[in-house]
C-alpha cells in the first residue's frame, strides 16, 4: 500500500513563512505541532540552498518528535534528502512524474491547481495524492492571486478521489464556510505564524474539524 493511501490529508495544514531566523521558525512551529497540527509544509522561497537544507532537516526532526507529516514545497530533491513525507508542486515546479521518479511511491505529491478543476483532474490522473485550490480569500502571502470560489470545493469533492485543500487568507473566523463547501484541509501561513499565540490559534482551527488539542504528555511522546 502506498503511504498516500494510508495517510489521508485532513484538518489543519500549516505552511511555514519565509523566515531566515531558524530558531524563531522552529519555536513557532513546535507550538503549532504541540497544539495537535499533524501536517506541515516547509516553504521558504527566499532562503539560500544551505539554509533551506538546514531548516528542512530541523523541521523533519521536529515533525518526527510530534508524529506529524512533513511536506517540502517545490523541491523533490530536498524532500528526498531530508526524508520528508512528500512534496508540494506548483505550476512552475517539477512535473508529477519527475517528482515520483525522485521520491518513489511511498511519498505524497500534492499539486496547486489554483482555480481550475480541469487542472486538478489532470493532476490526479498523473498521480497527485492531493490537490489545492486558492486563493479562497485575499492573501497576504500572494496578494495578486485570483480567487477560488467556494463552489469549486464542492465540485472537487464530488469529482475527485483525493483530499482537497483550501489555501489563501483563511482564518478561524472564515474557515467554517470553506470546510462546509468541501475542503478536507486548510493550508494556513499568516493566520498561524503571525498570530500572537500560534498554539492557541492552531487549536481554534483544529476545533473546526472536531479535533481536540493533544495533551502535553502525548505531544512530547508520540506513539
Describe this structure in words.
With 223 residues, the protein is an alpha/beta fold. It has a single domain (3-220), classed as Aldolase class I (TIM Barrel), CATH 3.20.20. The chain is 42% helix and 17% strand. The chain has helices at residues 3-6, 22-34, 49-65, 76-81, 96-103, 117-125, 150-159, 175-181, 190-193, 198-208, 216-220, and strands at residues 11-15, 39-42, 69-73, 86-89, 108-114, 130-134, 164-167, 185-188. It has an eight-stranded parallel beta barrel, surrounded by seven helices. Strand 4 (86-89), helix 5 and strand 5 (108-114) form a beta-alpha-beta unit. Helix 2 (22-34) packs parallel to helix 3 and helix 2 packs parallel to helix 10. The protein is globular. The mean pLDDT is 92.
Q: Could you give a short description of this structure?
A:
With 223 residues, this protein is an alpha/beta fold.
Radius of gyration: 16 Å
Mean pLDDT score: 92
Molecular shape: globular
* Percent of sequence in beta strands: 15-25%
Strand order of the largest sheet: 1-2-3-4-5-6-7-8
- Helix and strand content put the structural class at alpha/beta
Please provide the ordered H/E string of secondary-structure elements.
HEHEHEHEHEHEHEHEHHH
How many independent structural domains? 1
Counted beta strands: 8
Amino acid at each position: 500500500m502506498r503511504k498516500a493511501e494510508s495517510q489521508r490529508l485532513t484538518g489543519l495544514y500549516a505552511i511555514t513563512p519565509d523566515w531566515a531566523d531558524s530558531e524563531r521558525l522552529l519555536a513557532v512551529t513546535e507550538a503549532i505541532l504541540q497544539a495537535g497540527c499533524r501536517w506541515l509544509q516547509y516553504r521558504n522561497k527566499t532562503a539560500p540552498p544551505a539554509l533551506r537544507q538546514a531548516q528542512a532537516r530541523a523541521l523533519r526532526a521536529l515533525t518526527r518528535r510530534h508524529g506529524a507529516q512533513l511536506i517540502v514545497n517545490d523541491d523533490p530533491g530536498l524532500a528526498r534528502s531530508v526524508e520528508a513525507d512528500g512534496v508540494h508542486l506548483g505550476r512552475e515546479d517539477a512535473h508529477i512524474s519527475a517528482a515520483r521518479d525522485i521520491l518513489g511511491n511511498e511519498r505524497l505529491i500534492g499539486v496547486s491547481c489554483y482555480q481550475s478543476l480541469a487542472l486538478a483532474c489532470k493532476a490526479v490522473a498523473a498521480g497527485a495524492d492531493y490537490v489545492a485550490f486558492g486563493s479562497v480569500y485575499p492573501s497576504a502571502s500572494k496578494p495578486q492571486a485570483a480567487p477560488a470560489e467556494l463552489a469549486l470545493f464542492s465540485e472537487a469533492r464530488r469529482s475527485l478521489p483525493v483530499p482537497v485543500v483550501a489555501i489563501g487568507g483563511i482564518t478561524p473566523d472564515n474557515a467554517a464556510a470553506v470546510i462546509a463547501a468541501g475542503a478536507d484541509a486548510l493550508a494556513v501561513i499568516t493566520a498561524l505564524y503571525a498570530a500572537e499565540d500560534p498554539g492557541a490559534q492552531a487549536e481554534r482551527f483544529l476545533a473546526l474539524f472536531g479535533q481536540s488539542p493533544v495533551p502535553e504528555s502525548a505531544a512530547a511522546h508520540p506513539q
